[in-house]
Fold this protein.
Amino acid sequence: MAQEKFTFQAEVSKLLDIVAHSLYSQKEIFLRELISNASDACDKLRYAALTEPKLIDGDSEFRVTLSIDKKAKTLTVSDNGTGMGHDDLTDLLGTIARSGTQAFAEQIAAEAEATKDKKGKGKGKGKDKDADMSLIGQFGVGFYSAFMVADKVDVRTRKAGEDKAWLWSSDGRGEFTIDEAERDGRGTDVIIHLSKKEEEYLEPLRLETIVKQHSDHISIPIVLKGSGEDGEEDRTLNTASALWTRPKKDISAEQYKEFYSHVSHAFDEPWLTLHNSVEGMVSYTSLLFIPSAQPFDLFHPDRKAQVKLYVKRVFITDDCEGLMPPYLRFMRGIVDSEDLPLNISREMFQHNPLLAKIRSGLAKRIMGELKKKAEKKPDEYAEFWENFGSVLKEGLYEEPENRERILALTRFKSTTQEGLSSLEDYVSRMKTGQDVIYYMTGDSVEAMQASAHLEGFKSKGVEVLLMTDPVDDFWIPSVGEYEGKEFKSATRAGADLDKIGKDGKKDKKKDDAKDTDKSKAAGEIEPLLAQFKVALGDAVKDVRASERLTESPVCLVTGEGDMDARLEKMLKQNRPAGGPDLTPRVLEINPGHALIKGLNARAKTGDGQDSLIADAAYLLLDQARIIEGEPVGDPQAFSRRLSAVMESGLKV
Ligand code: ADP
Ligand code: MG
């Protein structure tokens, strides 16, 4: 068969260019990536051999081998794992198959550009390059990192169970070739033709240092082939036992971190490392991490958790639904159980009762650790919350049995506090007479802080929690309350602000006086309310005197029992055009505002047919919409009315 030629997928070419030209620091990690792949390939085959033992007949000792050829200036990383067939080679080593990659490749390219610019200005050290690396790592260009040190890379490979072997070859400049080849037995050799400046990777000591530093956690032996000269023998460079089976005291922070990189393909520091063994009804060891940065696919619609399942040290799957609930999908790491059957199948992932026990035990432990961190190191916890709070909150409606635990972990911005507050903090600050937790949801804290809805709350010093995650509109209706205190939207009718502070001793008289004033004022604008109602008809649910407004003339609130306006908007965005309109809302008007007073005076004396009042009703309704960032109901009518009102002002 003749040689076949292929071009890399466009994104791969782009990445290869970045890999080759803009990542100067830490080139040595290419070796970790290749060893990591070799170890994964062995894991996969060991699993496949559970059901098809003849795949590993005659060679069941898995290992990674490093061989140096000083003359040819090559370093070869070999394994006796699954190997790759012809189509695997084109699929796996020519494309980037992971989801969401297109956008991500662009992000990396942009990042690299930015780094280049910075470098032009001065010697930016470390940090910028680390930024590159963390993106690349998440992206999993693992294999392509070989081109940081190579002029050319050959991959000679034979898939377990097949007779044919193949040679993949590329200089990393846009094309690769595939030829038929020979190989003794299954597995893969990645042959790196080192470029001139990279000959340090031909030194056994250098390789040993790198392996000890980055790959010691690999559970199979990493063997450095002896040259045979002067009786030099093969040497195993790593500890060669599964990291999670070693005693905690023997594992360094650095080793944990390397293991985290290996299992998560991420280069950030783990924010939290949890290593535990549980003995009991079901025994298992878990080594779990919470990343310190958001993984790029955190909000991918499949919401898959990425914790690997092992049974008796044998890798089973990294796609086990039953192990980690979707609201903990930011967790990375492994779980290894003695008690699950080795032949556990995909269907069993969802229904196995032991797995369900492990899952619930892990969720509880993770939340327990988060709670400790939140109490002892609130600043660090705030970082976690920033990254993963919106994901964790999904659990509030998805897993009622952990609701209380999750509620205790939630943190919020609020109108009266700097930084983040817990619900417990909020409740402890509630005013006398306040029996509900006030909140508001919106796109930004700044916009909410400026909103007319909060005027009355502010003037009374009543705190309102400000929530900006879309998920907030979903969990609040399903959770409903915290410790017997109902969550109540500040944008709803019947905020009952009147009651608050009333039974506090201080200023009781003044408060009472104020309240009488208020209800008097509210009574006085009855004529205007009546005429507004007639004018606006079905465009609003009701027109009422407001308790909450102190400065603005009007605002829109959601009727008692109606769906929250923001939630409704979100839900309707996904509907076909021409669907039903949004539910009409309640227009609240401020009886103390000069404009309202003036209009009311006119309403009282008029005949009820005053077109200026009808125009004002619509204009004020539209004004309330505009302030909320919504479009006006009917732009043409809006302009006509606005002109009419301005004109009437000119006729003295
Ligand atoms: P990742 O390891 O994140 O999947 P890599 O770029 O490191 O990404 O590798 C791409 C794919 O190529 C791997 O997922 C694997 O399927 C295949 N591969 C790489 N190295 C080997 C190997 N030594 N043996 C078998 N398959 C391999
Ligand atoms: Mg890899």
Remarks:
- Residues 353-376 form the longest helix (24 residues).
- DSSP finds 22 helices and 22 strands in the chain.
- Residues 120 and 470 are 40 Å apart (CA to CA).
